[in-house]
Specification:
Length: 270
C-alpha cells in the first residue's frame, strides 16, 4: 500500500502573523476613545465656525452655523420684502436651518449606530465634515458658484444654495461631536448660551486651574471670535472666500487625523 501525502497545507508564520495584525487593527478601530483633552479639538472647531460663518455671511448674507440669526432672517423675510435689495434672501437662511437639522439627524444617528466614542466613528464623522468643506471650496474656486468679494447688490443667486447647504449640514456634525464627547460647555457653534453659562457660573472667580468648565466656555467664545475676525479680514484682502474655506478644511482634516492617534479610554479595573 502506497502512503498518501497529507493534502492539508501547513499554517505558515506569515499567515498567522497576518491574522494577528488584522485582529489588532480591528480592535484598534473599535476602541472607545478618551475625552481627556478632547476640548482642544473642539476649540479648533470653534475656530472653524468663526472662519466659515463670517466668510459665508460676507459673501451670501446668511450663516451656516449659528441658526438663531438665520431664524430672525427668515422671520423678517416677509416684512422686509419691499424694503430690501434681496427680497428672497430669507430663502438662503431657511436652507441653512433645514440642512443643519438634517445634518444633526444624520450625524447623531450615524454615531449612535456605529458607537459614538469608537475611533472609527469619530474618524469617519469628521472625515465627512472635512470632505464637505473641501468640496465646497473646490466648486467655489472652480467658478461653479461665485465666491468673489465685494459682491454687487442683486437678488438671490440660487447656486449659492449649494455651499450653504453643504456647510450647514457639516456644521451640525461638530456640535453632535461635542455632545457625544460630553463636553457640552463647548457646543462649537452657539455663543449666547455659552456667555450665559459663563456669567452665571457660581465659581466664576475661581483660580485659573480651579474651574475647567469656565475656562472652556471662555476659550470657546474667543475661538469663534478669533475665527470670525480672521475670516473677515482674509476674505476681504483676498477678494474671494475659497481661501478661508481651504483653511477651515485643513483644520478639520487635522482634527480627523488626530482621532487616528488619540488615546483610548481607560477601563476601570474590576
Amino acid at each position: 500500500m502506497v502512503a498518501t501525502e497529507n493534502a492539508t497545507l501547513p499554517i505558515t508564520a506569515d499567515s498567522s502573523q497576518g491574522k494577528i495584525t488584522n485582529g489588532r487593527t480591528k480592535r484598534r478601530w473599535e476602541e472607545e476613545l478618551s475625552n481627556r483633552h478632547a476640548d482642544l479639538l473642539l476649540l479648533l472647531c470653534c475656530l472653524v465656525s468663526g472662519l466659515v460663518d463670517s466668510t459665508i455671511y460676507n459673501a451670501y448674507g446668511t450663516f451656516v452655523s449659528m441658526q438663531t440669526g438665520n431664524t430672525i432672517f427668515v422671520g423678517l423675510g416677509g416684512s422686509t420684502s419691499y424694503t430690501t435689495q434681496k427680497p428672497y434672501g430669507w430663502a438662503k437662511s431657511l436652507t441653512s436651518i433645514g440642512c443643519f437639522v438634517l445634518g444633526a439627524l444624520f450625524f447623531s444617528n450615524f454615531c449612535r449606530y456605529f458607537g459614538p466614542l469608537r475611533r472609527s466613528t469619530l474618524i469617519h464623522s469628521f472625515l465627512i465634515q472635512s470632505l464637505m468643506i473641501i468640496f465646497t471650496a473646490a466648486i467655489i474656486a472652480g467658478g461653479l458658484v461665485d465666491g468673489t468679494l465685494p459682491r454687487a447688490s442683486q437678488d438671490i443667486d440660487w447656486k449659492q444654495e449649494i455651499p450653504i447647504a453643504l456647510l450647514s449640514f457639516q456644521s451640525a456634525g461638530q456640535m453632535v461631536g461635542s455632545r457625544i464627547l460630553s463636553i457640552s460647555e463647548i457646543p462649537t457653534l452657539v455663543v449666547t448660551s455659552v456667555l450665559c453659562d459663563f456669567a452665571s457660573d457660581p465659581a466664576l472667580a475661581a483660580p485659573l486651574t480651579g474651574n475647567i468648565k469656565r475656562n472652556r466656555r471662555a476659550l470657546g467664545f474667543f475661538g469663534i471670535l478669533t475665527g470670525a475676525v480672521a475670516g473677515g479680514w482674509i476674505s476681504r484682502e483676498a477678494g474671494e472666500i475659497h481661501s478661508v474655506l481651504w483653511m477651515a478644511a485643513g483644520i478639520k482634516v487635522f482634527i480627523t487625523a488626530s482621532w487616528v492617534f488619540w488615546p483610548k479610554a481607560e477601563t476601570a479595573a474590576v
